[in-house]
């Protein structure tokens, strides 16, 4: 990767958000890209930013412009509290939709945990999204009849935070509505996956994006 053509988290762009809030967007990627990818962090937010920046750089290194919105800013949070996820989910989704409103005709969404659920909800509402990658996310309510774009599911079978049954439910949902889905379940892996599994997960993500974006 030619580092001269990449921006990693520098010069965050401020865009309008819901309820007069503003949301910063970190940009990663080449000056000329093969498409845009929205990358959504999990409930830990930027308190674990190294993992998400690594993923953003790896996806950008495959030739994509990666947008990493700090969507928790819409509610003034640093991280999500379990008891507030249901009530704040629509606000976070609206903040992300504000960002995607400026995107080109085709883009993809990659989400981790809570971000995976937001990615699925966003894809059910925006036909421009041509691929979704769900890293150990949960199935948000209200998608029972949703038509989703090609979806890649990456989950650990020992996940105690978001049980693997969510991956199975998402796969059934996509298939039942005529969609295309790939799923890879990592034996013995918990929530977040271990460092040993991350290279494989990122490689699968890159290959999936090349196929569908």
Shape: globular
Strand percentage: 15-25%
Count the beta strands.
Answer: 8
Major β-sheet annotation:
8 strands, mixed
- What would you report as the Rg, rounded to the nearest angstrom? 16 Å
Write out the strand line-up for the largest beta sheet, numbering strands in chain order.
1-2-4-3-5-6-7-8
What's the total helix number? 5
**Helix fraction bin:** 25-40%
If you average the pLDDT, what whole number results? 87
Please mark out the parts with pLDDT under 50 across 5 or more consecutive residues, or reply none: 1-20
Order of helices and strands: EEEHEHEHEEHEH
Our measurement of the CA-to-CA distance between the termini, rounded to an integer number of angstroms, reads: 20 Å
Q: Provide the structure class.
A: alpha/beta
Description:
This protein is of the alpha/beta class and 213 residues long. It is 31% helix and 22% strand. The protein is built from 5 helices and 8 strands. The chain has an 8-stranded mixed β-sheet, with helices on both faces. A hairpin with a 5-residue loop joins strand 1 (13-16) and strand 2. The longest helix is centred in the middle third of the chain and has 16 residues, at 85-100. Mean pLDDT is 87; it is low at 1-20.
Concise structural overview:
Helix content is 31%, strand content 22%. The protein has helices at residues 49-61, 85-100, 114-123, 165-176, 198-212; strands at 13-16, 22-28, 36-40, 65-69, 107-112, 129-135, 151-156, 181-186. α4 links the parallel β7 (151-156) and β8 (181-186).
């Amino acid at each position: 990767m030619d580092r001269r053509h990449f921006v990693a988290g520098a010069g965050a762009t401020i865009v309008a958000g819901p309820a007069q809030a503003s949301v910063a967007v970190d940009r990663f990627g080449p000056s000329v890209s093969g498409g845009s990818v929205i990358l959504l962090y999990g409930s830990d937010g930027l308190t674990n930013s190294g993992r998400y920046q690594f993923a953003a750089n790896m996806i950008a290194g495959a030739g994509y412009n990666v947008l990493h919105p700090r969507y928790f800013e819409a509610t003034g949070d640093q991280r999500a509290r379990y008891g507030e996820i249901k009530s704040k989910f629509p606000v976070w989704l609206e903040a992300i939709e504000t960002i995607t409103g400026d995107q080109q005709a085709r883009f993809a969404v990659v989400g981790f945990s809570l971000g995976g659920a937001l990615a699925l909800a966003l894809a059910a509402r925006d036909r421009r999204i041509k691929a979704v990658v769900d890293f150990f996310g949960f199935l948000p309510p209200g998608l029972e009849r949703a038509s989703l774009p090609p979806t890649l599911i990456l989950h650990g079978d020992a996940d105690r935070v978001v049980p693997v049954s969510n991956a199975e439910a998402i796969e059934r949902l996509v298939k039942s509505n005529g969609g295309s889905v790939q799923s890879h379940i990592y034996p013995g892996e918990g929530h977040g996956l271990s460092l040993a599994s991350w290279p494989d997960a990122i490689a699968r993500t890159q290959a999936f994006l090349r196929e569908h974006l």
